[in-house]
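Mods, move this if it's the wrong board.
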Amino acid sequence: MTEGTTSTAAAEGSDTLTRLEQEGEIAADYLEGLLDIADLDGDIDMDVEADRAAVSIISDSPRELQKLVGRDGEVLEALQELTRLAVHRETGDRSRLMLDIGGFRAKKREILAELGAKAANDVKTSGQPVKLDPMTPFERKVVHDAIAAAGLRSESEGEEPQRFVVVLPA
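Not the wrong board. Structure tokens:
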């Protein structure tokens, strides 16, 4: 690799980080407006995780934020899509931003990683494929990652909203 190529790659990485930070800023402004309208207290934390902007709403009173999570994260999913649309409106680019509220996604990620590891272990033991219950795209991604970390393959099958993960033997 030549010296010019190295600096170009570094510049592209820097541009991506700057773009993701910009997405986070736009999302934070949008979410602050929503919190004000809903008269809810919450702090907004921004980060970049796995090549996507990650924005979290945290509060000293998590029960209050439960309204923004909804039953099994349904309201959270809707708010994430609205936030992505707000970012798209400002930047003109499709956003893959992840939104977490009150640590809901972080807890869900832990549970799903354990589910994926258990399913991988079951497949290693039995040698038979295992079909999991239908999941959202976020949930399937976490499970696929856990299965890959266990050294197995997995696929998604079915049509939304009944799409599910199948864990395959090695």
